[in-house]
Every structure is written in structure tokens, then in C-alpha cells.
Amino acid sequence: ETRSPCCCLAWTLVIGTMNCLVFLLNLLLMFVIFTIVLLPTIVVVYFGFQCHSQVLHSSARYCKSILDDNSSSALIILGFVIMSPLIVVAMAIYCSLARRLRLLVCFQPYSLAVYKGGCCCHGEGAPCCARGCSAPLKVWV
């Protein structure tokens, strides 16, 4: 049975808000994981650019005594070389965590706003389960 237009609009706003919150939670989780995993690359590239004479040429003690232009260039190159495998590791960690927490299952279709009595759960133990589901939907194979 379809909902009335006003009720459909209200449910659309509720579902849209919930989907936006789930999206922001996924984005926050991805940002935290990528920041932690890519921290070595960020630090190495930062020090390489900071101590290179053609870029920032800092007057810090470690730039004068330890890092010259050649070693700064080596740090910059090393940082960009180790970035690719660390991005793959960060993405694998995010996907594993999102699968374990079932975050992608929480996105709800807008058809729940149109029809009354829709099912919004996708499997046993999912964080977004509601009553009245008949068969679980497998998202991950």
C-alpha cells in the first residue's frame, strides 16, 4: 500500500537524513584510517619539502646538520614511493572494518518511503534491523 504524499515526503526526508548520516560515518571512518595508515608518508614528505632549498628551506637545526638537498629529494621520492602500497593497505583495512561493522548495509532505499510496511533489515545481527523481515539479503558474498 502506498503512503500519502505528505507521509511519503516525511519518510523520504527521514531516510535521506539517515543515509547522509551513514555516509558521513563512513567518510569519517575512512578519513581516520587513511590518516593513521598514511602518517609515515605524510611525515617523510613533509620533512623532505621542509628542508629542500628550492621549496621551503627551513632554518631548523636538523635541516642544516642532517638533511641537505640530496637527502631531502630522497625523502620526497621515498614518501611518494611508499604511498601507493600504504593506500592499498588503508583501503583494505577500511573495507574489512566496514564489512565487519556492516556499515554499507545501513543505507536504505527510498522505496521504504513510498510503500507502507517495507522491510529495512539485511541479515541477522545487522545494526539497522527492523521487525517483519522475511528473507535476509546477502550483501557480501
Report on the structure:
This is TMM88 protein. Belongs to the TMEM88 family. It is a multi-pass membrane protein. The chain crosses the membrane at residues 21-49, 74-94. One of its GO terms (molecular function) is PDZ domain binding. It is built from five helices and no strands. Helix 1 packs across helix 4 and helix 2 (39-51) runs antiparallel to helix 4 (69-101). It is mainly alpha-helical and 141 residues long. 62% of the residues lie in helices and 0% in strands. The model is unreliable at 125-133 (pLDDT under 50). The chain has a domain at 26-112.
Tally of extended strands?
Answer: 0
SSE run: HHHHH
Averaged pLDDT: 81
> Count of DSSP helices?
5
Structural class: mainly alpha
Distance between the ends: 32 Å
Q: Specify the biggest β-sheet.
A: none
Question: What proportion of the residues is helical, as a percent range?
Answer: 55-70%
Shape: elongated
Poorly predicted parts: 125-133
Beta-strand share of residues? under 5%
Determine Rg (CA atoms, Å). 24 Å
